[in-house]
Structure formats: C-alpha cells, structure tokens
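Me: I hope this is not a bother. Any chance you could explain this protein sequence and its structure tokens? It all follows right here:
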Amino acid sequence: MKKAIILISLIYSSSLFSQCFPDRHSTNWFDAWISCKVKQSPNPANGSGHWILYDLKNQYLIDKIKIWNVNDPDHLNWGMKNIRIEYSSDSIAWSSAGEFTLTKADGTNRYEGMDWMDVVIPKARYILITGLSNFDGPCFGLAELRFSAEKIEIVTETENKTTEQELEVAILPNPFTDIFRVEFKGKRNSEIILEISDLFGKNFYSEKLKLENGYTNIRIQTRKWPSGAYVLMAKQESKIQRAQLIKI
C-alpha cells in the first residue's frame, strides 16, 4: 500500500513558500495555532484543556509524526513541551498513542522542526493533540504537523444493499459555537428520528424528519447549550448512526 505524507499546515503566511528550504519555518507567532483559553476536549475523559483536533477525512494507518513548535523569538515559551496524542475512527471512542516530549523552537528562519517521531496509530480519522505543559507563559501553541500515513481502504458488503438505503449523516461545522447544520442522505420517503443529548443522557434536541427525495438538512441553534460534548443519534427504520458533537 502506498504511503503518503499528510501535511497539516497551520501556516497562513506566504513567506514559508518563498524560502529556499521548504521545511524552514516562519518566525511570526500569528503563523501558528495558539490557544490562550482552555476549552472542553473532544474526548470527554480529558475535561478542559489546550487541544487541537484534526479530521483527516479518511481512515489512515499512521507510523510517524513530525512537529514544528512555535517559532516566534518573543513567544518561544508558548511552544508545547509535553503532549498527549489520541486517535479515533468516529470521534466518539478514543485511544491513546502515548505522551511525547517536544523541543523548543530556535526562533530563527532556519528552523526545520523536530525529527520524525515514531507513533503507533493503526486506524484513525481523527487525531487529538492535547498540550500537557509548555515552556512558560499563558498560551500553548504549535506551528505545523506532518503525518506519515497509509490510507486504509474500507471494504463493505454490498449484496442486497443500495446506496440510497444507507443512512449518511454529515455535521458542519464540528466543533461549532452557536449553530451547526446536519445533512441526511438515505432511503427515499423514509422518516428519521433525530435526538441530541449530552454525555449524561439529558436531551437537548429531538425532531422527526422525512427524506422526501433521499435528502434533507436542518440548522440547529445552540446558543443556550453549555460548552462540551454531545451525542447525536439518527435512526432510519432499523439503521442507527451516532456521532459526537463538540460545542466550544
């Protein structure tokens, strides 16, 4: 199976692409991901903290990861020192790939990140990185990540099934703040029972929907919902889809 390098760039400055060495990094702190306020983690077991969640869109086997820390000379201490890496196929059940110690960036435009680190992630679509400590200061940050990965081909039984009978649920965006949209695809003219509850089972939303032409979508307002994790359940006849929602 062909292995690929997945680039998860947190860089928005075009200066990176004008340098002679493509792995060298910007020295501006605003060219990095920075968290100065703790929020509820996508993994409820972690509570609140400084974290960043990646949706790779497909399932991957990942064996290495390369990280660039915050490289602004005035904010090098904001770089993460110790991190926990977790992974999930569905954003509901999480597994740990372990805890890792990072090195501080050098604050120069010659900075080329840390060496590739070995990880064991056999199957994941979602990668969650939590900052356990930094070098000093109120904020936590990272600049860029790359994964060495192989895409996992999902083989499903298709006998006696048709595409339109499969219930598909898409949530945009997720995580969200005050509003999100849910799209449904499935069996034509079928009814969907939608329920959203918190992790303690308290119901926050319920509705019955009909797929007139095999598709419908709704927008859900969440201004009065507390920040945290929720579980969405969509039932179409005997088929049930569940997904985790995160309000930040």
